[in-house]
Amino acid sequence: MSARTLRIGTRASALALWQARHVEALLAAQPGAPRIELVHIRTTGDAQREVPLWQTEGRAFFTREIDEALEHGTIDVAVHSLKDLPTALAPGLALAAALARQDPRDALLTRGGESLRQLPPRARIGTSSLRRRAFVARLRPDAVPVELRGNVPTRIERLKGGDYEAIILAAAGLVRLGLTQHVTEFLSPQEFLPAVSQGVIGVCARADDEATLRLLRALDDAAARLAVSAERALLGRLEGGCQVPLGALAEVGGDTLELTAAVCALDGSRELRAHGTASASQGTALTAADAVALGERIAGELLAAGAAELIAHERSALAVTAP
Q1: Residue 227 in contact with residue 286, Cβ under 8 Å?
Q2: I want to staple 288 with a disulfide (CB 3.0 to 4.6 A). Which of 151, 191, 229, 306 is the partner?
Q3: How far is CA 66 from CA 15, 78, 225, in A?
Q4: Is 294 found in the same domain as 212?
């Protein structure tokens, strides 16, 4: 194995490269580690920066081209922000590792140092996420959502330049890039549930590449795997392939997995919330199957409360079309 070169596919943004280099370092620390090469791949999300993400059909706009390169054998490993990865992987691919979760919260960055509740009336808040728009509307219905694209440093510069009064970014990316000094407020996950898998790096390989899978399994974090299994099972039952104004957070405590999820109308007028736990049987450990069952159960509770109708109404209002 050591004579082989392991090719890691990644986007070329600062955050994506940090994540790929982090995986590279973890792999390089293993005994008999192979030589590693990073391969930069441009994705649909990188090329179509003028198109709002919520107007793009599907969820694979930052991952599709990388996973296609993995399928075709031009790379051996794909590194993603797991929140960008569709719940249904392409045939022949496997989520080989979910790395230990970084802070899953959203972070508010403001020009004037105000918290979300202190922002002036009709403050312009930059975000490309339907989920963030919906939760902002629930907490600050007067705020004006403004589309926000570009890499993390670019978004911060646009805030400083006066395009927005505030922007919302994932805390994990700011931590990884050493940019937390710009954070005004970390938003409470109780009020502002994060995106599914936010803060987790996902590493994929071909399902039949046993040598690479063996290497990557050593990077898999048990708590992160349980959490994202529950959250992705929830999303898989609710989404239907498009962005959904859904927040979810699963947390492991001892032998218990706890999952909270909410679907919110984009104008903040209605929120459906569900919560549940899964516990290990005496003498056994929680499994990914237990986590999946919990996610599907909470999704069922949301659907029974009217989540499908709420999501369909929001999609119809947006008139989502492929670019």
Answers
A1: no
A2: 229
A3: 16, 6, 22
A4: no
Sheet holding 256-264, edge to edge: 246-253, 256-264, 271-279
- Here the CATH number for the domain that contains residue 313 is 3.30.160.40
| Predicted pLDDT at 254 | 87
Q: Is residue 276 part of a domain?
A: yes
- State the catalytic residue, choosing from 84, 103, 106, 209: 84
* 3 vs 203: which has the higher pLDDT: 203
Domain boundaries, position 276: 222-323
* 77 found inside a domain: yes
* Cβ contacts of 18 within 8 Å, gap of 6 or more: 176, 177
Token pair, residue 305, equals 């409360």
Could you tell me if 95 and 127 lie in one domain?
Answer: no
CATH number, domain at 91?
3.40.190.10
Quick one: average pLDDT of 264-278?
96
**Confidence category of residue 195, pLDDT binned at 50, 70, 90:** very high
Q: b/e map of 175-208 (b: 16 or more CB within 10 Å)?
A: ebbebeebbbbebebeebbbbbbbbbbbbbbbee
Looking at residue 206, its pLDDT comes to: 97
User: 157 and 294, same structural domain?
Assistant: no
Active site (annotated) includes residue 84: yes
